[in-house]
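Our preliminary data section would be incomplete without showing what the modeling component actually yields. Below, a chain of 214 amino acids is followed by its predicted structure, encoded as tokens that our downstream tools consume directly.
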Amino acid sequence: MINMTDIAHVRQRIAAIQQQFGQLQQVPGAAFGQTLARAIQTQDAAAKAQTQQAKSAKAADRQSAGTASPKQAGTLNVGTGMTAVSDLPPADADLSAFVQQAAREYNVDPRLVSAVAQTESGGDQSAVSPAGAIGVMQLMPDTAASLGVNPYDEKQNVEGGAKYLREMLDAFGGDVRKAVAAYNAGPAAVKAYGGVPPYRETQDYVSKVLDLYR
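Predicted structure:
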């Protein structure tokens, strides 16, 4: 007895193949089974090609991710010259541009601004310390007010941090170590001790910033 269900399945298969590859051309003298087999073979070959292409793309992505530099992987990518912001995610690219602009405006090495930002907040504008310091450069509200910036705006936050670094560099004759210590502990403490105060937090802070800066 003819199994009508099997015939229906075959017809559905033919219809699907015809829809994907166009109406099958009838070959004079060719059997129905041969025509169907060729169509299926063509479909399978196309599917395998797509799978191989996808695997190759994934392999290339893995290789690219494995060879990315640490700066591209997550830190602020700021150098002495032009920054390769095209290599960064959009948020990091914006921050890198803000750092460059603020550094130029206040004549501070952008690497120093970047090192302070990385140490203060990891470059996170949403960071708020238990003491109330805000944003990328961790500006206290009173400090931000004295600098004339809105600490909740990322661009202004970076500008405020760069401006404050400039003030500290000027206050300590361009001594980067003392300026960084003053950024953390305040200029009064640095003046009182004639250098980096004997606070473990400040000493660790200065070491980390200078390690990133150099």
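The chain is about 65% helix and 0% strand. The domain at 71-213 is CATH 1.10.530.10 (Lysozyme). Preliminary results of this kind motivate Aim 1 of the renewal.
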